[in-house]
Amino acid sequence: MKKIINLTKVFFINSSREFAVPFWTIIFPSLFFILFISIFENIGNVENMDFKIGIYYQQPLQGIVKNVFDEIFSSQNNNNPFEIIEYDSFEKGLDNLKKSKINAFVIFPQNFNLLNIKFFINELEVPALKVYYTNENTSLYAKNIFDVLIDEINVRINTKGEVMPLTIKEEILGIEQSEPYRYRDYLFPAIILMSILTVAVFNMPFDFSFNVEKGIFKKLSSSPITSNGFFVSFLLSHIILLIISLFVLYIEAYLFNVNPYIYKLSFISYALFSIMVILSVGLFLSSLYKNMGAAGAISQIIYQATIFLSGFYFDVTNSPWIIRWYVYFNPVTYLVDGMRKIMLGSSIALVNILIPVIWMISSILIFSLTFKRMIYNEK
């Protein structure tokens, strides 16, 4: 055990000596996380949102009231931030609001046309508009903007000669839901996997190739260190570097208030499972390269294809079939999807376990068959 600990220490210090290793493994994923959420998270802010308002008329509008509301809700009104959807059923409109198909639901009650007569009989009581909304951010935005439009309508009605404020009765539907799923929540699992991929696709194969080129394995074979001891030490040194990277990412996630599901046992367990899968693939890749040149070229292709064709930053399921095969072939697609499902409070599917396990077992088998040949066939 002491030999393994000492060798692990040597491997870790040796692999971390070059600035590129800690930079690409620890610093770059952290910078990438900050950069991407700074650029992309505010794309969906209120200025860029399209709101859907459901309308239900208990009685068709008539007269001045109809003209005013038709003008405000007209699709040709450039100042109208809403898409208006009319319903012929109160129940259907309320159900669509609960399912977030619309952002707010406005009811024009019976006898609302009395507002036309209120021009002449000021004491007349006109029933209030009723606005239903939910605790979702977009619904709250929609309700607030609708209030502004009603203020505008009040001004228009007032210019007709009388001060007749149009009243609104609001009701919020307490829909139980998780925290809004922000881009930082969507991105965090991808950044974790990016860090793991950096170790598996670059660090491990490069170190193996370097040891082969320099004849390190032959020198170790004449020492008391066994091949199994070398393997365990080599793997532990990279796992330590990876743990440091994940620790930094979790600190960053805490500062950016990422979804608290990342601290749950289910998410951490699945992240550890992802580490096992990807590092197994890294061992498999290490057994393929004969020199540093091959490792550099092929690793770069695999790394770039994996991070861009695994749904890390955007959905790739609609990509052309000529490249979509890689999306479904590669295990990281299922790992990042599994992490996101856990963050949403959903159950992971069988495919999120099965495909990565197949990759892990296959990679370990191939590596175990080629490990000794790779060590003792050095130049």
Number of continuous helical runs: 14
Uncertain parts: 43-48
Question: What fraction strand?
Answer: 5-15%
- What is the total tally of β strands? 5
> Order of strands side by side in the largest beta sheet?
2-1-3-4-5
Order of helices and strands: HHEHEHEHEHEHHHHHHHH
Give a quick set of tags describing it:
five-stranded mixed sheet, 63% helix, alpha/beta, 379 residues
SSE order and pairing:
Elements (H helix, E strand, L loop, with lengths): L1 H16 L2 H21 L10 E7 L5 H11 L8 E6 L2 H9 L5 E5 L5 H4 L11 E6 L2 H22 L9 E6 L9 H32 L1 H6 L5 H29 L9 H22 L5 H17 L12 H9 L1 H13 L7 H26 L3
Parallel strand pairs: 1-2, 1-3, 4-5
Antiparallel strand pairs: 3-4
Describe the fold and architecture.
It contains 14 helices and five strands. It is an alpha/beta fold and about 375 residues long. It has a five-stranded mixed β-sheet with strand order 2-1-3-4-5. The longest helix has about 30 residues. The chain is rod-shaped and about 105 Å long. The two termini are about 30 Å apart.
Summarize the structure.
The chain has 14 helices and 5 strands.
